Amino acid sequence: MSNSRDAWWRSAVIYQVYIRSFADGNGDGIGDIAGLRSRLPYLADLGVDAIWINPWYPSPLADGGYDVADYRDIHPAYGTLDEARQLITEAHELGLRVILDIVPNHTSDQHAWFQQALAAGPGSPERSRYIFRDGRGEDGSLPPNDWHAAFGGATWTRTDDGQWYLHLFAPEQPDLNWDNPEVRAEFEAILRFWFDLAVDGFRIDVAHGMVKDPALPDLGLSEFSVLALEGQEDHPHWDREDIHAIFRSWRAIADSYPDPRVFVAEAHVRPGRLADYLRDDELHTAFNFDFLKCPLEAHRLREVIDRSITYLAAVGAPATWVLSNHDETRHVTRYGRPYTGVTAPMRDEGHPSDRALGTRRARAATLLMLALPGGAYIYQGEELGLYEVEDLPEELLQDPTWKRSDHTIRGRDGCRVPLPWTGDTPPFGFSASSAAPWLPQPDDWKSYTAEANQADSASMLQLYRSALRLRCTEPGLRGEEFRWLDSPDGTLLFERGNGLLCQANLSEQPIPLPDACDPLLASGPLSEDGLLPPDTTVLLHRN
Questions:
Q1: Are strands 531-532 and 97-102 parallel, antiparallel or unpaired?
Q2: Which of 101, 175, 205, 328 is catalytic?
């Protein structure tokens, strides 16, 4: 059964591929399936279990592909459906599972359904697939309610015939009406389409936002919030109870295959609510945003780790851990600032980052993360030690946040710069030709290429490979055993199975290593007198 204790997804390390920026196989400066196929051996050698590919569907790219125009095809810039089939086959041959992104909360405004809705007019069956409403005020010129959109501005756009349509994100991303049975049937068919092509699962975008209160009541807030706030138990568009019936039907489809497929939820919900999405007849795992956004402080990390494991264990689900993704500032940069957490989505912290400090802390956090029980996610390029590119020319910024915030928030492009693979000058092997990448790479990334990392035995890449290898070979890291041990303030010490320990020193002073233990792998050099330096993590084995 797919929910058994030895199911692959319970401890999988999944590598996130932002396909536009991973590798360019046809030389046009844009990442594509051909480029990804050429680098599959690299990913297999890294030691991950699966790849998760951000949306590769036809799209106007108003939001990096999260505005889907056709859920059953491939964007021409990325390749063809036949190439996708070949990629899935080749990945499986290398022992890599393939997880796709599905975007069920909204479509592109260029999707055939939405174009039909605009043409059909008010009250039509075509419009009932989306959320259209008349406006307020005598002439209907005011939005139907006071909701705010994720990328800034109102969450309603008026059509030529006077009605308004809902979009929790950009105007180019109209929200679907999940109370409409036709919408539910369509997405069940989309799941089967890709599952029949041997895709192993889906990451569900905005899983907590698909169902809305039909009354669409005012919220009374002055700005957008990514989750329901305290006291908002009946939020009109986040984390509504009716969402779970949809996911139970999806789980039945996934379990109907001889090799059951899996789901990963992107669900921004309050602590304790995430487990409701991971009951044994719903989704399998979910992203751990609490861990990603947590400051690199021992007591706060311990709270998040305890809460994550405890809440999810109540429904038999494993925790997952993640440090970066395509929506957040890369953690090398975050960890080099005075405050190491995520204060607000898609915002510059306003402090220069100490790159050496951030890199040292990133190494420590990575080894800590990969020693915890459950699954983990790696965002492309973090294994190379890449930092956030914060000085991209304003005229090249493409994240809708930049425009919708009246050019006050730069957005997420800085973590989406194309990867450096080889060589001393841009495009660093990203493209099959010398074509300029769709976003420019810093010149000093010559020291961060996969080639440069490979040649350095102490590189970030070598640390990732060593840690991932231990997850496969060290019995103590395979199960779900976990218990805290006493340790000084500012540090973490826990034991897994088979006498394996992990100690992280996040304080400002060196600390002694546990007695009668032999180091297996450290994130940085240990001192000659047997102390663990600050901002360093070590895996040890009891004698």
A1: unpaired
A2: 205
Alpha carbon distance 127, 132 (integer Å): 7
Query: 3-class DSSP state for residue 518?
Result: strand
259 as an active site residue: the answer is no
Amino acid making up residue 408 = T
Q: In 3D, which of 37, 61, 165 has the Cα closest to residue 113?
A: 165
DSSP E strand stretches across 191-256: 201-204
CA 244 distance to own-chain centroid: 21
Three-state DSSP state, 355: helix
Alpha-carbon distance 297 to 489, whole Å? Answer: 10
For residue 485, CA distances in Å to 275, 384, 482, 492 come to: 26, 32, 10, 8
Tell me if residue 266 is catalytic. yes
In this structure, what are the phi and psi dihedrals at residue 321, rounded to the nearest 5 degrees?
A: -135, 145
Q: How many CB atoms lie within 10 A of CB 317?
A: 23
HSE value, Cβ hemisphere, 13 Å, CA-based, for 296: 33
What average pLDDT score do residues 444-452 get? 98
Of the candidates 67, 101, 109, 266, the residue annotated as catalytic is 266
Tell me if residue 111 falls in helix, strand or coil: coil
Output the six-digit token pair for 497: 């199975």
3-state secondary structure of 376: strand
Structure-token pair, residue 340: 């190491």
- CA 213/CA 245 separation, integer angstroms: 15
The span from the CA of 512 to the CA of 145, in Å, is 59
DSSP symbols for 247-281: HHHHHHHHHTSSS--EEEE-----TTTHHHHTSTT
pTM for this predicted structure: 0.96
Say which DSSP state 39 is in. T
Per-residue pLDDT reduced to its tens digit, 502-525: 999 999 999 999 998 999 999 999
Q: What is the pLDDT of residues 229-243, one digit of tens each?
A: 655 678 999 999 999
Residue (of 316, 92, 76, 331) closest to 199 by Cα position: 92
Angstrom distance (rounded) from CA 461 to CA 450 = 8
C-alpha 214/C-alpha 224 separation (Å) is 19
Nearest to 347 by CA among 409, 292, 391: 409
How far is the C-alpha of 365 from the C-alpha of 62, rounded, in Å?
A: 33
The beta strand positions in 146-301, using DSSP E, are 156-158, 164-166, 201-204, 262-265, 285-286
Identify the DSSP state of 514. Answer: P
Task: Tell me the mean pLDDT in the region 348-365.
Answer: 88
Which residue is listed with tokens 């939001």?
A: 63
pLDDT band with cut points at 50, 70 and 90 for residue 347: very low
Residue 146: closest CA among 158, 136, 154: 154
Residues paired with residue 511 on neighbouring β-strands, in sequence order: 532
How much is the pLDDT for 1?
42
Cα 228 from Cα 234, distance rounded (Å):
9
